[in-house]
Amino acid sequence: MDYVIDTLGNLLHQTAFFNLSWGNYVMIAVACVFLFLAIKKGYEPLLLVPIAFGMLLVNIYPDIMISPEESSNGVGGLLYYFYTLDEWSILPSLIFMGVGAMTDFGPLIANPISFLLGAAAQIGIFSAYLLAILLGFNDKAAAAVSIIGGADGPTSIFLAGKLGQSGLMGPIAVAAYSYMALVPIIQPPIMKLFTTKQERAIKMKNLRPVSKLERILFPIVVTIVVCLLLPTTAPLVGMLMLGNLFRESGVVRQLTETASNAMMYIVVILLGTSVGASTSAEAFLNMNTIKIVILGLIAFVFGTAAGVLFGKILCKVTKGKINPLIGSAGVSAVPMAARVSQKVGAEEDPTNFLLMHAMGPNVAGVIGTAVAAGVFMAIFGI
Fold first, then answer.
1. With b meaning 16 or more CB within 10 Å and e meaning fewer, what string describes 308-323?
2. The predicted structure's pLDDT at residue 87
3. Could you tell me the end-to-end alpha-carbon distance of the chain, in angstroms, rounded to an integer?
4. Integer CA distances (angstroms), 76 to 63, 80, 274, in order
5. Which among 82, 227, 92 is positioned nearest to 147, based on CA atoms?
6. Who contacts 133 (Cβ-Cβ below 8 Å, separation ≥6)?
């Protein structure tokens, strides 16, 4: 009888209930909220579902992220190895390849002024960098946090890894992906605040046709120019342009389909679950996380506002030929930000079609955020 009681007692104490802290329960609740937003509300489910589930797993079973050095048998936890691919910048770079293979760069090529709108939106990143310094982050941590303003999860993970800020990678990545998912909620009030009803109703002329030669040359030229100026951007910009070259060359259809579908979704699963698994209660529930979330929001708001305000300037310069709303798409949340520009414009005039015009600044924002990351790495000699 004693044996049975002891056995049952051992089994009972092996359950997670006896090993979890209050913080773990808080994080489990947060994970469930993320799952609700992803599944019920449809907020970027491809990102939030794996992130939330990784968060759920690590706070129920922390050893799923244990390193080989800490384990009793020298073998790390499953998601530890996924997370290592984040730290090595492998998964973020592969995500960029998939984005390049999925994205039409034609609107950016047809309207090069979009580069200016994408650049303007990066103001949020550098504003947040200064604020982070004032809040007590060291220079590298401030840079890693500020890149959230680009609303670009892969770049945020990439830069945090390169700058040796692995301890902040979880909160940074979750904040970046959360703001990507919340673009349809955060951006419209800012866009409407800085524009008039008349400006929002501006119709833009159809973009000129882009030749196949231009489409092929664009990723090659951008890679050469950007990577010569900032060689550290090669993993991101290079993979983005390689994926787009697959798409536009027309001779590697199998590679295009693989990069934009099977590989992309596999990488999203690995990256999402590992990012979520980096948010254990011990790593996530602290004052730095609160600061990161606030700074990320400020950076994102500033970036959106800067893009819209620069759009207003271009609207004046071109005598009403550019709708300022497309400036908000200068953050690199592709294609969500461009869709929001279309939605807000259509609210004023249902016949107004801004999506393709907004895709130019949107793609420019992806490149711009990668360049901003390269600038920080150059500053710190990485």
1. bebbbebbeeeeeebb
2. 86
3. 64
4. 8, 6, 13
5. 92
6. 139, 142
DSSP letters, 356-373, are HHHHHHHHHHHHHHHHHH
Would you say 132 and 141 are in contact if contact means Cβ atoms under 8 Å apart? yes
Residue 201: partners with Cβ closer than 8 Å, 6 or more residues away? 345, 348, 349, 352
Residues, the chain: 382
- Cα–Cα distance list, 142 to 152, 167, 326, 370, 373 (Å): 16, 13, 29, 16, 12
Cβ–Cβ under 8 Å, residues 270 and 95:
no
Amino acid making up residue 235: P
Question: What are the percentages of helix, strand and coil residues in the chain, rounded to 5?
Answer: 75, 0, 25
Q: Token pair for residue 152?
A: 């670009």
Mean pLDDT of successive 10-residue stretches along the chain, which has 382 residues: 61 64 90 91 86 93 90 89 90 93 93 90 88 90 86 85 85 83 88 92 91 96 94 93 95 94 93 90 84 87 91 91 92 85 91 91 91 91 80
Cis peptide before 335 (omega within 30 of 0): yes
- Token representation of residue 104: 């039409």
| 310 touches 342 (CB < 8 A) | no
Q: Answer whether 244's CB lies under 8 Å from 214's CB.
A: no
Question: Where would I find the H helices in 106-238?
Answer: 106-110, 114-120, 123-134, 139-146, 153-162, 166-181, 183-193, 197-200, 212-229
Q: Read off φ and ψ for residue 186, nearest 5 degrees.
A: -75, -40
Phi, psi at 229, each rounded to 5°: -75, -40
190 and 301 Cβ atoms separated by less than 8 Å: yes
How far is 303 from 122, CA to CA, in rounded Å?
A: 6
Whether the Cβ atoms of residue 312 and residue 194 lie closer than 8 Å to each other: yes
Residue position matching structure tokens 């550290």? 232
Token couple for 177: 């992906």
Structure tokens of 326? Answer: 């497309």
pLDDT at residue 107, as a whole number = 93
The dihedral formed by the CA atoms of 272, 183, 223 and 226, expressed in degrees to the nearest 10: -110
| Residue pair 267/50 in contact by the 8 Å Cβ criterion | no
